[in-house]
Amino acid sequence: MSQQAKKPFASLFFFPVATAYGAFILPWSVLAQFGLLAAPPGLTGSLGHAYEMLFGFALAVVAGYVLGPQSPRWLWSILSFWVAARIAFLGWSTSYVSALINILFVAVLAFKVVPRFAGAKKWRNKTLAPILLGLCVAATLFQALLLTENNGPAHGLLFEAVLLLSALMFFMSGRMLAPAIATHLLKQKRELHARLQPRLEGWVLLSLALALIVNLLPGVAIQPIVGLCLVAASAVALVRLVRWPVWRCLDRPDLVALTSGYIWLVIGWAVIGWTLLTHMLPLSTALHGITVGALGSLTLTVMARSQAQRTRKDANAAPAIYLATGLISVAAVARMAAGTLIPGVWIHVLAAISWSVAFVCLLVFLLWFRKVPDRPLKP
């Protein structure tokens, strides 16, 4: 057995922990904000909820996916930093201890993954390096703002993190969908002519890069420019999606689920862009298309798909798990409608329950499919 083969995949460590955290802590935070449940200080405010969604849950999923095989010592160390960071933030979010541990986690993560992607041969793969580095820097700056008790810029910083995360999701989902659809069509004796569509992919990434840069400028006058960039990214991403004949893959639940997450990216960018142009919705409401719809659907699908492929050599070994993305869509629609189209606390409760049930189902799946079966797999 080679030395590489002895190294476990980071997903075996991070995916179950991130899933459990997302299933219980994030809905707990939503309910706590409405006084329905008692919660630690880090979960009672909107900033804490957003931070744990982006830099607690999402960054743990990202770590599980991009770290790849690592030595057990490194994996246990990074995971321990993440767990300690979550405990510190939940209980003492504005303390120096919380800041130190959270910064230590993102620093180690950046140290392990950014150089690898920065050294990639293709420039499009190199784009992952600044995206991942940007997420780690955003987490660090957010902690610094909490120490100074200056929460004003924190909202803009979280918006920047949402845009960075959406760029990462767009890149990764497209790189999964295109080859998988092409392979599936070949089995139907069809050919996919528009595969990765690198030009369209590049235009979307450039639009997002411009939005990220302009968003850093001071003043509200820049909001329409950011909005136009996001509407443009949404339109080009939609054209790219339409050129993939996803309707011929309805017998592949994993591809349908991946597509739903990609569609939520298109919807999310369009709604956020329209909000920045017209101010018809609160920005915090519009962001849920990305932070709940796209993030929830894609993380759930990617974790389930990766686990099934690794242990069963079949992404659809348990196709029912992908039905959970329907619950994620329910949660996203509920969160976007809450307080605007539909008043009352119950719509927030519906969103929290839908999200929680979806990730509890995923957690059961990940634990059940953790090991390769003793009997040989069927060819």
Description:
This protein is mainly alpha-helical. It has two domains: 1-150, no CATH class; 163-369, no CATH class. It is built from 15 helices and no strands. It has helices at 3-6, 11-33, 46-66, 72-92, 96-118, 123-126, 128-148, 152-187, 198-215, 223-242, 253-278, 283-286, 288-312, 324-337, 346-368. Helix 5 (96-118) packs antiparallel against helix 7, helix 8 (152-187) runs antiparallel to helix 9 (198-215) and helix 14 (324-337) packs antiparallel against helix 15. It is globular and about 60 Å long. The two termini are 23 Å apart. The mean pLDDT is 91.
Question: How many structural domains can be distinguished in the coordinates?
Answer: 2
How many runs of DSSP E, i.e. beta strands? 0
The H-and-E topology, N to C, reads as: HHHHHHHHHHHHHHH
SS-derived structural category: mainly alpha
Rg, alpha carbons: 20 Å
Strand percentage, roughly? under 5%
- Report the span from N to C terminus: 23 Å
Shape: globular
Number of helices: 15
Helix content: over 70%
- Main sheet? none
Which consecutive residue ranges, at least 5 long each, have pLDDT under 50? none
Overall average pLDDT: 91
What oligomeric arrangement do these chains adopt? single chain
Topology of this structure?
Layout: H1 3-6, H2 11-33, H3 46-66, H4 72-92, H5 96-118, H6 123-126, H7 128-148, H8 152-187, H9 198-215, H10 223-242, H11 253-278, H12 283-286, H13 288-312, H14 324-337, H15 346-368
